[in-house]
């Protein structure tokens, strides 16, 4: 395969639709097709993918459920996913955004629109590799998407909605900064940071951490300061304030 071309996974329960999409994309990408969400999940466990095109209305496992499963696999944490569907009602559109989709195309999709979207996401992902990487951890996916919209023009943003998955990511990756929600199940922000600090002490490499919290009462502040974060910020936070604080932590 030509490594300068994006590797695109197309997921649909309609074999004819898969062939059409492959025909449209073959001039500009290396295309893999998966008949249904389960086959797609099995494929990404063993192969790297640059962009995923995902149908919503599929039996057994619809597109939203498939995307949720993708985001719980370390191989797909930050792979762009575009929904390609015949549904255009407000609920479906809004849910695709809430679930963390990176685009939305209506069937029958036009060849030029499809190629443009795939190349746009692929080039954006390649360009982002030269930027500093920020890992945002929060159990609220809608808030993660808001943070991503604040930061994506300046940083490579990885969003993860569970501490368990965040630990898996950090085992193999070292971001330049971590944005960490305080109120999370399993581990709160302070507990997570204490574990992260111990891990990084062993590796002799500290990662700057900013804790975000919707509650900054005396007990929360005490727990946060004990974990020694680089900053503690109150939710909700404006884009300007977040960018300013990140710049101060990264460039003291």
From TrEMBL:
GO terms for biological process: phosphorelay signal transduction system. The keyword Kinase does not apply. Keywords: Phosphoprotein. The modification 4-aspartylphosphate is found at residues 55, 181. It comes from the Bacteria. Pfam families: Response_reg. The keyword Phosphoprotein applies. Residues 7-122, 133-250 form the Response regulatory domain. SMART domains: REC. May play the central regulatory role in sporulation. It may be an element of the effector pathway responsible for the activation of sporulation genes in response to nutritional stress. Spo0A may act in concert with spo0H (a sigma factor) to control the expression of some genes that are critical to the sporulation process. This is Stage 0 sporulation protein A homolog.
